[in-house]
Structure formats: structure tokens, C-alpha cells
Specification:
With 350 residues, the protein is an alpha/beta fold. It contains 10 helices and 17 strands. β11, α7 and β12 form a beta-alpha-beta unit. α9 runs parallel beside α10 (327-338). The termini are far apart.
Length: 350
């Protein structure tokens, strides 16, 4: 891979830093790669209509090319340029949740190249709420395909520093707009079939979706592995994702069971990925990723915590299992993939 001269563009205010926004937009129009902030995580953006630019995303990330990408637009009605047979449910979801951390899968028009859709007959569409992302997309004048701006398989980036660590020299620019507010990728729901199917959980919860749509099916890959050689209809379904270098095991059980189990494994390189409430009883090094009573804090901290484990040299990590409801389902979905689906009960007593 030929190394690029990466620009670092600071944009703390979409109105004040228009020069850097226009620089980023020009690079996207010209087929370049730009890491941009969103409210969920930083995304690696390219012109979604340019097959060569999209292929460059896969090269920069080392990402499997059968993994579809999400295209980012600014207004709900712009979906009509890229999707066909748009159901009324799409606009109902947009009225409630967009702009925001929700991606909707629809049947695509031919204008979307197969490189963007992962060879599928569908397109994933999102309207981000981050003002800098919206300003860049608006100025670029093209839909922006943007998976997470990290090396494939590593924890998703929630700061520009994470993007710099993974992608410096691999992309044309990184836009620094501070820390992402949500911390997990968007909810993905498919409206391309006979019934709504949740493919990836996020900050928009299944319960919230059902308030708009009625019953929503949850794909088995949300809490497990994609069966057989199944085709991934959404990012985040098929492969081990979000993983630090350390081996992670998720432990189910109470705080007392968890800390007793982890303490019994004390040794070189052993770390706890714990809740704040677990800390007083731990005898091993730890990284905290939020409060047991706050799923939003867990979501906000998870990816940064996984990167901290690498920085501290963790080799074996025991993670506290989150609840599997509300936003907790999204946290669990990411954590189970970071752990390569290694989960067990913390029931041993010592």
C-alpha cells in the first residue's frame, strides 16, 4: 500500500471552521478518503458513488469486501435518489429518530455501485446528527460511504487520536472534532423485506423501534454468530470485530461472583474490564467502562476502554457482562464480538 500524506483538520465549530470543512469536502469529491466525526463513532468517508474511492476504504482498513457500507446523507428525502420502493415506515422512522444514530436498509437503485453495497441489492442509509459530519456531507454534495475509521477488527474510534493511531498515512485527511457523544455505531434496521428486522443494535433501541413500527424481528446474529456462509446484510454481523490484542472472556454473574472469579485468575497480564462498582473488590489491574446502572455510560466508554487495555499491555481480560436490554443490547453485541463469542458463568468459588 502506498503511504499518503495525511492532513489533520481541526473543526470544533461547523460555522467557524468552514475552510477545513471545505478542504475535507473537496477531498471527498475528488475520490479521497477522509475520517470524519459523527455522533456514534468516527467514520472513514469516501464518495459512495465512486467505486474506486469505495475500494480504497477497504484497502485502508484491511476490511473484507463483502461487508456492506452505510451511506450518509443530510435529508430523509435524499434517499429517493439511491433507493427504490421506499416504504412509509422509512419516513416514520426518520420523523422520530433522524438525524441520529439510526441506519435504515432499503432496496437500492443502480446508482449505488456493488462495491458500496457489498454486492447486495440493498443500500444502508443514515442521516447523522453531528453538525460537522452534516456540514462536510452538505459541502461535498455526494452521499458519503463511511464505515468506522479504524483498522478492520480493532476497536472503533471515538476520538481523532484513535483514527490517527490506526490510519495515519493510509488516508488523505482526519477531521478532529473532539469525542463522539454516543460511542457505539448506529442501530441498523432493514425495511427491504416483508417485515422489519433489527440487524445491529445501537442507541435507538428495539423498544423504541417497536413504538413506531410495531413488532420488530431481531436477527439471530445480534447476540450470536452469523450462521454458516450467510451473507452479511449489515456491517458488524459477520466477523470478529472491535477486538483489542488481549484475549477477552465475558463473565455472567453478580459483582461478587465476578470479582471473586477474576481475583482467582490474578497473574501477569490479567486485567478486569469492569464496572465502576466492581473496583473496590478487585485485586487485579482494571479498566472501567462505565456504571452497572448506566447503559449509556457503558456505550460511551466501551471502545475507548478496549483501546486502553492494549495501551496497558493486557494479555488476558475478564469482562463483566452487560444487560441485554435497551442500549445494553448494543453494548453486549459489540462486546461479544470483541470476545470472539467467549462467554461463561462466573460461578466458581474460592
Amino acid at each position: 500500500m502506498i503511504m499518503k500524506e495525511t492532513k489533520l483538520l481541526s473543526v470544533r465549530d461547523a460555522e467557524q471552521d468552514k475552510k477545513n470543512i471545505e478542504t475535507a469536502a473537496n477531498l471527498l469529491r475528488q475520490g479521497g478518503l477522509v475520517a470524519i466525526p459523527t455522533e456514534t463513532v468516527y467514520g472513514l468517508g469516501a464518495n459512495a458513488l465512486n467505486p474506486q474511492a469505495v475500494e480504497a476504504i477497504f484497502t485502508a482498513k484491511g476490511r473484507p469486501q463483502d461487508n456492506p457500507l452505510i451511506i450518509h446523507i443530510c435529508q430523509p428525502e435524499q434517499a429517493e435518489q439511491y433507493a427504490r420502493e421506499i416504504p412509509s415506515a422509512y419516513y416514520a422512522l426518520c420523523r422520530r429518530f433522524s438525524p441520529g444514530p439510526l441506519t435504515v436498509i432499503l432496496k437500492k437503485k443502480d446508482i449505488i455501485p456493488p462495491e458500496t453495497s457489498g454486492g447486495l441489492d440493498t443500500v444502508a442509509i443514515r442521516i447523522p446528527s453531528h453538525p460537522v459530519a452534516r456540514a462536510i456531507i452538505q459541502a461535498a454534495g455526494v452521499p458519503v460511504a463511511a464505515p468506522s475509521a479504524n483498522l478492520s477488527g480493532s476497536p472503533s474510534p471515538t476520538t481523532a487520536q484513535h483514527c490517527i493511531h490506526d490510519l495515519w498515512g493510509r488516508v488523505d485527511a482526519i477531521v478532529d472534532a473532539g469525542e463522539c457523544s454516543v460511542g457505539l455505531e448506529s442501530t441498523v434496521i432493514s425495511l427491504a423485506g416483508e417485515r422489519p428486522i433489527l440487524l445491529r443494535p445501537g442507541a435507538v433501541t428495539p423498544e423504541q423501534l417497536e413504538e413506531v413500527l410495531g413488532p420488530v424481528e431481531i436477527h439471530q446474529a445480534v447476540t450470536g454468530q452469523l450462521e454458516g456462509d450467510g451473507k452479511a446484510a449489515s456491517p458488524g454481523m459477520k466477523y470478529k470485530h472491535y477486538s483489542p490484542k488481549a484475549k477477552i472472556t465475558i463473565l455472567r454473574g453478580s459483582s461478587a461472583q465476578y470479582t471473586a472469579y477474576v481475583n482467582s485468575r490474578k497473574g501477569p497480564g490479567v486485567y478486569a474490564l469492569c464496572f465502576e462498582e466492581d473496583i473496590p473488590n478487585l485485586l487485579v489491574p482494571y479498566v472501567s467502562w462505565g456504571s452497572s446502572g448506566s447503559e449509556s455510560s457503558q456505550a460511551h466508554r466501551l471502545f475507548a476502554a478496549l483501546r486502553e487495555l492494549d495501551q496497558q499491555g493486557a494479555q488476558r481480560v475478564y469482562a463483566r457482562c452487560p444487560e441485554k436490554s435497551g442500549i445494553g443490547l448494543a453494548v453486549y453485541n459489540r462486546l461479544i464480538r470483541a470476545a470472539a463469542f467467549d462467554e461463561q458463568e462466573a460461578k466458581e468459588t474460592f
